[in-house]
Amino acid sequence: MRVRLLVVLTVLALAGVAGFAIPLLVTSAQERTQRFVLSRTADLDRIAALAVQATLTGDTGTLREEIVAHHGVYDEAVLVTDARGNPVVVEGLDPGDPGVRAAVEAALRNQPTALPDVLWPGHSEPLLLARPVGTGTGIVGAVVIRALPGAAVCDIVVAWTRLAVGALAVAAVAVGLAFLLARWILRPLARLDAGIRSLAAGAADTTVPAVSGPPELRTLTAEFNRMAETITASAEQQRRLVADASHQMRNPLAALRLRLDVLARHVAPEGEEPYAATAAELERLEELLAGILELAAAESRSTDRSAAGAEPVERVDLAHVAADQVAVWQPVADEAGVTLRLCPGGPAPAACPASEVAQLLDVLLDNAIRHTGPGTAVQVRCSPGVLEVADDGPGLAPDELARATERFWRAPRSAGTRGSGLGLSIAAQLVSGHGGDLELSATPGGGLTVRIELPA
Q1: Where is the Histidine kinase domain (predicted)?
Q2: How far apart are CA 200 and CA 56, in angstroms?
Q3: Which fold has domain 315-453?
């Protein structure tokens, strides 16, 4: 936008300068041309008057002196003829030249000479100016001057140079003003854009100073600040509500767990089945509460990290952490009849704390072992910045892949298994907080592949 606005303002400024300078250049050339033509017309009139006098007296001395003086001053050739076109006084012109003869004949017929409207820079051709000697039917001869426009053209070039320098100076000032105007308009937009990005990243106390720019932008900035304050306060209240509610539920659940454990010794045989169902529901509730707390903590860490900006992040070898977590989950996989294997590979550096990589693997391995079923295999692969967990279980349908990271969503066939539906949501939030990406896809041949990409 900055470039487009600068281009538009600069073009408008240059167009304005050109619209002022071009007519001025033309006017200056026309004015100097008019002075040149008037000067040479006056010379013609003066020489014609002397020619009339010479015709009456028969003395051409004064006429010749005037023509020689004119030639000496302007270096311009002059020819005076009688009524038959015969030369009377010649200074530098060839009476036999076709152009000169044509000018003499036109003057004897009392035809006006075509005069130039304007002389342009670069014009170097001499001009043949002619007029009759005498008036009306009393034409007794003709005067022809070969006028040289060089001095007038030089004056025009000098005037144009001065005007061009002035126009360039004005254009430079106009372009500078265009830059200042663009800066005045765009600086508030840049601050507003930074504020929007900061608010989208979850930064608290995001405000934009509304101290410059057009009134409309200052009003927009003030409205944004009010919106940012409302959104920040609402998000903080929501996080506190989730965290406080989860913490407040822990005490009653802990007391309920204690009483249920004490009650286990007094359950009659006919009450063992209801008791087991109650214990399973309590375990599910505890797992759900733990998931909510983990999700709230992941969102909080993601928000804090985004608000803090680019800070040094702990680097970790994904392969090393994966080896540790595979060893931890190996007994669980063996008990479930699932083959768990870490594919060998080289170092796999990534910018992410080791504790969060371990948490991601816990979520992915727990889901894979729990939902693939006996006789299946789970593979963990690592490469720089990439962590993959793939299984050959039942997998997910295309429409289920799109919903798998939604909170509390569970596949219909998983209704009979434990779980809160928050695991992949927590993983997605953790990965997003590090600027990474979590992608679910079908494993070739059947199954589910979870691919996590982290900054390397």
Answers
A1: 244-456
A2: 103
A3: Heat Shock Protein 90 (3.30.565)
By CB atoms closer than 10 A (0-12, 13-18, 19+), residue 277 is: exposed
- For the chain, domain boundaries: 2-157, 215-308, 315-453
Asked whether residue 253 carries a pLDDT value surpassing 70, the answer given is: yes
Tell me the CB-side half-sphere exposure of residue 243, using CA atoms within 13 A. Answer: 11
Residues 391/410, Cβ–Cβ less than 8 Å: no
pLDDT at 80 over 90: yes
Beta strands 339-342 and 377-383 are parallel
Contact 50, 76 (CB under 8 A): no
* Per-residue pLDDT tens over the stretch 363-413: 899 888 888 889 999 999 999 999 999 999 888 888 888 888 887 777 776
Integer Cα distance of 366 and 423 in angstroms? 9
Residue among 423, 409, 276 nearest 360 (CA): 423
The dihedral over CA atoms of 104, 110, 111, 116, expressed in degrees to the nearest 10, equals: 70
Let me know if 123 is exposed, middle or buried by CB neighbors in 10 A (0-12, 13-18, 19+).
middle
Backbone phi and psi for residue 48, each to the nearest 5 degrees, phi listed first: -65, -40
CA–CA gap between residue 205 and residue 229 (Å, rounded): 7
